[in-house]
Design a protein that fits this description.
globular, seven-stranded mixed beta sheet, homodimer, alpha/beta, five-stranded antiparallel beta sheet, 22% strand, 13 helices
């Protein structure tokens, strides 16, 4: 087993840092499990600058970088962050993109992905932006350059949704899907069922690290909207735009409504859904729904996420698992790299 | 798209009959979706005899065969059923095995699968027997002959479990699993929660076609035991034997216990489970368990089945969907054929 991929990590926040830590700590075990090895040859980050080293970045020292530190003291390091140069150079085989998502235009991740694919590298990302705004363009760009674009982690972190649909469910006739795609809002609804007010539940979610300091995107539904857009476009190759998905959050759900629903054996859930219309168009929406106890998504509680596929041959098939978390999302990147390796292996034969 | 596979259907009961009907009815749409065509060149069945036709069996007439009819009047047909001759001949590329399972030794399916693999054909089956009794041997036999053995439908009919584990969840570190793997017993438990006695619920399940005339294997747990054995051996390449899995059914669960559990916000479920011990050994069991409402399997009701994987990187990941049904199980065979095609395509490059 002599196969190795050189990785350039773009962004060194929680997710890519955890990936680096897994490769540093468990590299040998991972190589045994996957059948190939991984070397991190570049890292860039707005805070720390960049480091490029064809023999492999010194991960001990990179991982030790904290607030106020830079990569300047590392072998091959410098204080400035030059994403485009690193992505377009020959330092890596695979670009691992994990920067933040701007919900209005998908940048800067979208440019990072474009640069990678255009310069002949496969790219994986946990970022919702690129596939939500340009799934079709990026798939064509990857195709043209005989590389892959993978973004499994952007939907439910490590819980595989896109890959379940394209792999084991191939040919099953997926007509639509409904999902619980935001852990924070689901946690808040679950805690409101235990008697907390929405505000109390949000504060608790923030204390537990589920919710951002500004929980607007989670509670207001715009995070789910991006995921629904991304998933629909990945499933069907369509060009749905986020701004065309009618979206309501859970802000308007009162404690009384939660109580009344529970008394009737139902549960309020924030549901993102899409299905194909008669002419192949995509009809999508995001909003709170009251689900009967027997509904497959009704029992999905706390920070767990789930997607129920409506299929022609099987009826409903549901997958549930974590929807967030550092290690879970880092694992999604590993699963993307496995898919990229599989692509290269089948291409080369 | 000129790729075609010739299929020999062994057994012409509900499942293979439905597969033949799908190919007959939707062949063109299926070919478009899958990228290859399917031709049924042989069918054998204990009741109807056998029919072999290199240009394709006349499916109109084969599907019209009912009680008391035989294949003798079809082009290439005869009254006797010669499974071994058909399987070992060159009439087909893929053997599609869907006979009954003898829970004591896995026959006759096990021999059918062996003959197919030994004579250089890929084999798919919905039969629990072969993989429950000889997963390891059959994997080696397939490997040696550069063909595939697939049995996704034997666990949860069309709902993918084995393929989810080996594909999208590769590298996630599956430490164990628990599942609701029998639709009849789960339906009975669900209906007992609505106030029926166990006997009433069994009769209802029989009337709906879920339960066999003799429901012993469903209610007594031996069906689940075979599935747990099969799944463990497929996941980990182990050689667990069904007789080593301690098994209890739901017969002893009383209406009072069901009521008491519900009053405490819990649900009785028949759980099949296995995990790996410290030395890599498999520890498996089948029996009723009282699950808290928040447990991922607690809300799986009626004839739905589910498997929860315990994973190292993601924690619990659960898939649920139909666990039985003609069309659902026939779809499992199509998904097996897709996997076989993928294998050949990657081999040939």
């Amino acid at each position: 087993m002599d196969r190795n991929y050189n990785l350039a990590l773009i962004g060194f926040g929680n997710v890519n840092r955890t990936l680096a830590d897994i490769i540093h700590r468990d590299g040998a075990a991972l190589e045994k499990e996957l059948g190939f090895s991984l070397t991190i040859t570049a890292i860039t980050d707005l805070r720390y600058g960049s480091v490029v080293n064809p023999r492999g970045v010194d991960l001990d020292r990179a991982l030790a970088c904290g607030e106020g530190d830079t990569f300047a003291n590392l072998d091959g390091g410098q204080e400035t962050c030059n994403n485009q140069d690193v992505i377009c150079s020959d330092i890596a085989d695979i670009i691992v993109e994990a920067t933040f998502t701007n919900p209005d235009d998908g940048e800067p991740g979208l440019s990072h992905v474009r640069w990678g694919l255009e310069s002949g590298k496969s790219v994986c990302t946990t970022n919702k932006g690129p596939a939500a705004f340009a799934a079709h363009e990026l798939a064509e760009l990857a195709n043209k350059n005989a590389v892959r674009f993978e973004c499994e982690g952007a939907v439910m972190s490590g819980t595989p949704v896109i890959r379940l649909a394209h792999g084991p469910l191939k040919g099953v006739g997926i007509q639509g899907f409904s999902g619980i795609l935001n852990g924070t809002s689901n946690y808040v609804l679950t805690r409101m069922e235990s008697g907390l007010t929405q505000q109390e539940a949000i504060v608790e979610a923030q204390e537990l690290g589920y919710a951002e300091a500004d929980p607007t995107a989670d509670i207001g539904g715009s995070d789910v909207r991006l995921k629904v857009t991304l998933l629909a476009n990945e499933l069907w190759g369509t060009q749905l735009r986020a701004q065309d998905v009618p979206t309501h959050g859970i802000t308007a759900i009162t404690e009384e409504e939660i109580k009344e629903a529970e008394a009737n054996g139902t549960h309020w859930k924030l549901i993102g859904q899409a299905h194909r219309g008669d002419q192949g168009q995509v009809i999508a929406s995001v909003g709170p729904q009251r689900l009967e106890t027997r509904h497959p998504l009704s029992g999905i509680s706390g920070a767990t996420n789930a997607v129920m596929f409506d299929t022609l041959y099987l009826g409903p098939v549901t997958i549930s698992g974590p929807g967030a978390g550092r290690e879970e999302t880092a694992y999604a990147l590993i699963s993307d790299i496995v898919a990229i390796d599989h692509f290269y292996q089948t291409q080369e034969r």
